[in-house]
Protein backbone atom coordinates (compact mmCIF):
# COMPACT_ATOMS: atom_id res chain seq x y z
CA UNK A 1 0.00 0.00 0.00
CA UNK A 2 2.82 2.38 0.87
CA UNK A 3 4.42 1.83 -2.56
CA UNK A 4 1.24 2.97 -4.31
CA UNK A 5 1.01 6.04 -2.10
CA UNK A 6 4.56 7.19 -2.89
CA UNK A 7 4.10 6.46 -6.59
CA UNK A 8 0.96 8.62 -6.55
CA UNK A 9 2.62 11.42 -4.59
CA UNK A 10 5.83 11.59 -6.65
CA UNK A 11 4.07 11.20 -10.01
CA UNK A 12 1.51 13.78 -8.93
CA UNK A 13 4.21 16.23 -7.87
CA UNK A 14 5.95 15.92 -11.23
CA UNK A 15 2.64 16.62 -12.96
CA UNK A 16 1.89 19.55 -10.63
CA UNK A 17 5.28 21.05 -11.47
CA UNK A 18 4.49 20.73 -15.17
CA UNK A 19 1.06 22.28 -14.73
CA UNK A 20 2.48 25.18 -12.72
CA UNK A 21 5.05 25.79 -15.43
CA UNK A 22 2.21 26.20 -17.93
CA UNK A 23 -0.22 28.13 -15.68
CA UNK A 24 2.07 30.37 -13.65
CA UNK A 25 5.13 30.74 -15.88
CA UNK A 26 2.92 30.74 -19.02
CA UNK A 27 5.19 28.27 -20.79
CA UNK A 28 3.83 26.40 -23.78
CA UNK A 29 3.28 22.64 -23.47
CA UNK A 30 6.29 22.10 -25.76
CA UNK A 31 8.55 24.22 -23.53
CA UNK A 32 7.23 22.48 -20.42
CA UNK A 33 7.80 19.03 -21.89
CA UNK A 34 11.31 19.95 -23.03
CA UNK A 35 12.24 21.29 -19.60
CA UNK A 36 10.91 18.16 -17.88
CA UNK A 37 12.83 15.87 -20.25
CA UNK A 38 16.04 17.84 -19.72
CA UNK A 39 15.47 17.82 -15.95
CA UNK A 40 15.12 14.04 -16.02
CA UNK A 41 18.27 13.79 -18.15
CA UNK A 42 20.28 15.99 -15.78
CA UNK A 43 19.06 14.11 -12.71
CA UNK A 44 19.85 10.82 -14.44
CA UNK A 45 23.32 12.01 -15.41
CA UNK A 46 24.00 13.03 -11.81
CA UNK A 47 22.77 9.64 -10.55
CA UNK A 48 19.80 11.14 -8.72
CA UNK A 49 16.94 9.75 -10.81
CA UNK A 50 17.60 6.05 -10.11
CA UNK A 51 17.07 6.47 -6.33
CA UNK A 52 13.82 8.29 -7.14
CA UNK A 53 12.72 5.33 -9.28
CA UNK A 54 13.64 2.91 -6.48
CA UNK A 55 11.61 5.01 -4.04
CA UNK A 56 8.54 5.87 -6.12
CA UNK A 57 8.38 3.14 -8.77
CA UNK A 58 5.88 4.02 -11.48
CA UNK A 59 5.51 7.50 -10.00
CA UNK A 60 8.97 8.23 -11.38
CA UNK A 61 9.03 5.96 -14.45
CA UNK A 62 5.75 7.01 -16.06
CA UNK A 63 6.15 10.83 -16.30
CA UNK A 64 8.10 12.43 -19.14
CA UNK A 65 11.10 13.04 -16.88
CA UNK A 66 11.80 9.33 -17.08
CA UNK A 67 12.31 9.64 -20.84
CA UNK A 68 15.17 12.07 -20.27
CA UNK A 69 16.65 9.70 -17.72
CA UNK A 70 16.38 6.81 -20.21
CA UNK A 71 18.18 8.81 -22.89
CA UNK A 72 21.10 9.53 -20.58
CA UNK A 73 21.30 6.01 -19.18
CA UNK A 74 21.34 4.53 -22.70
CA UNK A 75 24.04 6.94 -23.80
CA UNK A 76 26.20 6.30 -20.73
CA UNK A 77 25.92 2.51 -20.86
CA UNK A 78 26.77 2.30 -24.57
CA UNK A 79 29.56 4.86 -24.23
CA UNK A 80 31.22 2.53 -21.72
CA UNK A 81 30.94 -0.39 -24.14
CA UNK A 82 31.74 1.17 -27.52
CA UNK A 83 33.11 4.63 -26.89
CA UNK A 84 31.96 7.93 -28.34
CA UNK A 85 29.77 6.37 -31.06
CA UNK A 86 27.91 4.49 -28.35
CA UNK A 87 26.74 7.79 -26.92
CA UNK A 88 24.49 8.25 -29.94
CA UNK A 89 23.53 4.64 -30.59
CA UNK A 90 22.74 4.03 -26.93
CA UNK A 91 20.12 6.76 -26.94
CA UNK A 92 18.25 5.07 -29.77
CA UNK A 93 18.76 1.55 -28.50
CA UNK A 94 17.21 2.04 -25.09
CA UNK A 95 14.28 4.25 -26.18
CA UNK A 96 13.43 2.76 -29.57
CA UNK A 97 10.80 0.32 -28.30
CA UNK A 98 8.78 3.03 -26.56
CA UNK A 99 9.03 5.44 -29.45
CA UNK A 100 8.12 2.73 -31.97
CA UNK A 101 5.12 1.68 -29.89
CA UNK A 102 3.91 5.29 -29.69
CA UNK A 103 4.15 5.69 -33.45
CA UNK A 104 2.44 2.38 -34.23
CA UNK A 105 -0.41 2.84 -31.75
CA UNK A 106 -0.94 6.46 -32.85
CA UNK A 107 -1.18 5.31 -36.45
CA UNK A 108 -3.64 2.55 -35.54
CA UNK A 109 -5.74 4.99 -33.53
CA UNK A 110 -5.82 7.37 -36.49
CA UNK A 111 -7.21 4.56 -38.67
CA UNK A 112 -9.93 3.66 -36.17
CA UNK A 113 -11.07 7.13 -35.12
CA UNK A 114 -11.81 10.28 -37.05
CA UNK A 115 -10.52 13.48 -35.47
CA UNK A 116 -12.92 16.39 -35.27
CA UNK A 117 -11.44 19.39 -36.93
Automatic annotation (TrEMBL):
It comes from the Bacteria. Keywords: Membrane, Transmembrane, Transmembrane helix. The keyword Membrane applies. The chain crosses the membrane at residues 6-25, 32-49, 91-113. InterPro entries: Spore_V_AE, SpoVA. The keyword Iron does not apply. This is Stage V sporulation protein AE. It comes from Desulfotomaculum nigrificans (strain DSM 14880 / VKM B-2319 / CO-1-SRB) (Desulfotomaculum carboxydivorans). The lineage of its organism: Bacteria, Bacillati, Bacillota, Clostridia, Eubacteriales.
Amino acid sequence: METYLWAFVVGGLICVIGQLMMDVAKLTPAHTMSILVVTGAVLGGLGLYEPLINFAGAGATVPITSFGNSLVQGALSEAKNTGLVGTITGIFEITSAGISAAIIFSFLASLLFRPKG
